[in-house]
């Protein structure tokens, strides 16, 4: 029993020595307390022009945390001279009227980790300095008189604060046109609703509840449309009844430097009657009209949201070919099925209608499509075959009819070359129609170049498409 007790005492002694040793190693591994500036070197500082601007300069105390300390911040022109010499710069010492140090010193307890020197800058005086083209900085040195705590490396105790004066502004995150060429789309489904969220932001840390107001500004849209080149898409002003601005979202709450404005768009506002919509490309031009605090960014006060409501692509199921005056199967009994007019309705760009090829007839060539019901048409188009050597159609037109006998031309089309405009979509005002007629009046290459247009041509078209309800 005594033997076991002696072994226990020996083990306890070894453990105690090991524990003390580990504790000593741990103390050795930990750094002594030290002080340093969280940011050092040349520091670009934003100063907002709202009267006296208080800048916070953080000081860090790290290490074991065994000591309290008092640290001072002094303006030291020798730091500026050394920086200019090392970096080949010509910064000037900031005049006394541009700043003031609010505290001469900071006191750290053993447990303190970070504190801030507060420096008041005068934006008006700083702005006046900018008129002479020189750049001014405030060179500061961190100093302590406490022998038990040291300042970290020299470079972490020095800073040159270079303030730039900014106007405190509110504005849109995306000024100007939003998503050029990619509109927000409203569908023609019953009671379709689209909600958009323009982002409104301030360029400073927001310590207040800031309210603002927005307006729909048609002049901004006119200016945008007027800046476009010929042929570029222009937008119509969104009808007043098509949108609702949630004014309760016109606020940036304290500690938030951005929020989202809520705007609801409704499909029913575009419905003229049961069979007619005001389809088109619209835009909602928003302008920040007022703000409860500070100013509005003149470069970001307007955003333009493009809105599109377009006729849906019509299903061609049930459509039939009523008549065609030039079909390759009229002259070749075993012609491929890829050549017949029915291929215009199969939604396959690799199949196509081909006009007579052995003995082409004179222009025009046409194909008549029966829609099987009365439809409201807003757009018609065609697609040429995937094979770019095919096509050869240069110009023509679409016409429509309600009875298959009386026809109205609604839109002309033309192409610059056989490689361009392989797909065309042609808009027009709403037309009621039971029948569509696609007409080809000219081609790029003729059957007999010597005879020209009178000799006819071989043409191919893959699809005829319609948009409407």
From TrEMBL:
Pfam families named in the record: BT_3987-like_N, F5_F8_type_C
All copies of domain F5/8 type C, residue ranges: 309-457
Top-level taxon: Bacteria
Family matches, as InterPro entries: BT_3987-like_N, FA58C, Galactose-bd-like_sf
Name of the protein in question: F5/8 type C domain-containing protein
Organism (species): Parabacteroides goldsteinii DSM 19448 = WAL 12034
């Amino acid at each position: 029993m005594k033997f076991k007790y002696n072994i226990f005492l020996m083990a306890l002694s070894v453990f105690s020595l090991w524990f003390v040793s580990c504790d000593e190693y741990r103390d050795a591994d930990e750094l002594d307390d030290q002080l340093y500036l969280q940011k050092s070197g040349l520091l670009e500082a934003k100063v907002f022009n709202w009267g006296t601007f208080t800048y916070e300069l953080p000081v860090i105390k790290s290490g074991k945390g065994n000591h309290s300390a008092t640290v001072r911040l002094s303006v030291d022109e020798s730091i500026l001279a050394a920086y200019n010499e090392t970096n080949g710069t010509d910064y000037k010492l900031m005049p006394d009227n541009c700043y003031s140090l609010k505290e001469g010193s900071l006191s750290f307890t053993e447990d303190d980790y970070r504190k801030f020197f507060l420096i008041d800058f005068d934006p008006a005086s700083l702005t006046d300095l900018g008129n002479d083209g020189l750049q001014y900085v405030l060179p500061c040195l961190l100093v302590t008189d406490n022998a038990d705590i040291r300042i970290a490396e020299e470079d972490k105790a020095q800073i040159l604060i270079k303030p730039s004066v900014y106007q405190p502004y509110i504005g849109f995150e995306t000024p100007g046109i939003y998503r050029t060429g990619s509109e927000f789309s409203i569908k023609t489904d019953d009671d379709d609703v689209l909600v958009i969220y323009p982002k409104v932001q301030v360029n400073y840390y927001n310590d207040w509840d800031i309210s603002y107001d927005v307006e729909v500004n048609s002049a901004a849209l006119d200016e945008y449309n007027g800046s476009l080149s010929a042929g570029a898409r222009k937008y119509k002003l969104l009808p007043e009844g098509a949108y609702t601005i949630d004014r309760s979202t016109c606020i940036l709450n304290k500690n938030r430097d951005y929020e989202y404005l809520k705007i609801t768009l409704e499909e029913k506002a575009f419905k003229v009657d049961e069979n007619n919509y005001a389809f088109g490309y619209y835009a909602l031009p928003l302008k920040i009209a007022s703000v409860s605090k500070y100013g509005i960014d003149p470069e970001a006060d307007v955003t333009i949201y493009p809105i599109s409501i377009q006729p849906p692509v019509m299903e061609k199921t049930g459509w039939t070919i009523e008549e065609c005056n030039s079909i390759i199967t009229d002259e070749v009994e075993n012609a491929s099925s890829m050549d017949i007019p029915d291929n215009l309705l199969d939604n396959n760009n690799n199949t196509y209608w081909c006009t007579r090829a052995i003995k082409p007839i004179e222009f025009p060539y046409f194909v008549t499509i029966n829609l099987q019901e009365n439809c409201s048409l807003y757009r018609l188009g065609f697609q040429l075959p995937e094979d770019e050597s095919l096509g050869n159609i240069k110009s023509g037109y679409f016409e429509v009819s309600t009875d298959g006998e009386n026809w109205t031309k609604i839109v002309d089309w033309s192409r610059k070359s056989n490689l361009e405009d392989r797909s065309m979509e042609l808009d027009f005002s709403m037309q009621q129609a039971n029948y569509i007629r696609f007409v080809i009046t000219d081609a790029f290459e003729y059957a007999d170049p010597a005879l020209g247009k009178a000799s006819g041509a071989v043409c191919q078209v893959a699809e005829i498409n319609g948009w409407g309800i």
